[in-house]
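Translate sequence into C-alpha cells.
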Amino acid sequence: MRAAVVGIAGPSLSAAEASLFTRLPPAGVILFSRNIENPAQLVSLVARLREVLAPEAVLMVDQEGGRVARLRPPHWRAHPPAAALGRLYDADRTAGLRAALLTGALIGFESGAAGMDVVTAPVLDLGLPGADAVIGDRAFHANPRIVARLGHAFAEGLLAAGIQPVMKHIPGHGRAMVDSHFARPIVEATGLAPDLLPFAANQALPWAMTAHIRYTRWDAERPATLSDVVIRRIVRGRARFQGVLVSDDLAMQALEGTPAARAVATLVAGADLALYCSGEREANEHVLSAVPEISAEGRMRLERARAMAAVSCIPLNPDLLGSERDRLLSA
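Result follows.
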C-alpha cells in the first residue's frame, strides 16, 4: 500500500477510481458528506471499496459531532459539539466526562456499523477567545487539562466501539488567527506548552493528525505538517507520540506546491501517511504515484492501532447510551 489516504468524488466508486486503487493501492479512503446519502447507499459504497482496497486498508470518516458531521440526521443521530461537553464539565465534572465517553461511543458505534475503521476525532485544540472560528465549538475547552480529560473520555468511547480515534491537530490549532483551509496560520507565541499538553497527556492514543500551522518558536519557515523539526522534536519528542501520524488534508490552501509535492514533503518530514481529501481522481493519481509504500515502521503503527481498537471493543446498546447522554446534556 502507498503511504497516502485519499478521498473519492461521489456516492459511488467510479470505474476509474477502482482502477487507480487497484494499480496504486492507497493506505485508506476517507469519506465526506459528498460520499454519504443514506445507509443503504453507504453499505454498497463500503462493500465496493472493500473489494478494491487492500485488506489492511482503513476507511476513515470525519465525524466529530456538532458542525463537523458526515453521518447526519435523519439517518443517523445528531451529536453535540465538543464545547457543549466542556460546558457540562464546568457544571458537573462527572457528568461531562460521562457525556464525552457516551458521545464517543455513539459516534463510534454508528461509524463502525457503517463499515468505518477510523474516526478523525477528538479535537484536542484549545478553544481560545479571539482565535479564528475554524476551531471554535469544535474545542472542548480553553483549559488544556480539561481538554485532555474530555478528549481522553471521548477517545475511550470510540475505542469501546472498536473504532480507532485520531487526535487533532497536533501540536495545537487553537491559537490560529486564520482558517488553514484558506490561508497559512502563523503562531508566534513562545509559550506553547499548554497547547501541547492535551496531546502529550493522550500520547498512548493510536493516531494523531498534524496542523498546517507555522509555529515560529519551533520552525520559522515550515508549517508543522512539513517540518521535520516539529514532527521529530515536538510531536515524537516532547509529546512522546509514537502512533500513526497522518497529515491534515493536503488539499488545503495553507500549503504551497502541487498535491504530490506536499504529500512527499510531509512523509519526508516524518509523517506516516499523507492525507489528500479532495476526491479529484487526477490529483489522487499524482499523489499515489509520488508517495512510496508505507514504511515498515508505519505498518507496525497501523497494526498496533488496529489491535488497540480490537481489544478495547465491547458490546454496546446505542439506544441506552443515547438516552443516558441526552439526559446528561438536558439536566
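Note: The domain at 61-272+287-326 is CATH 3.20.20.300 (TIM Barrel).
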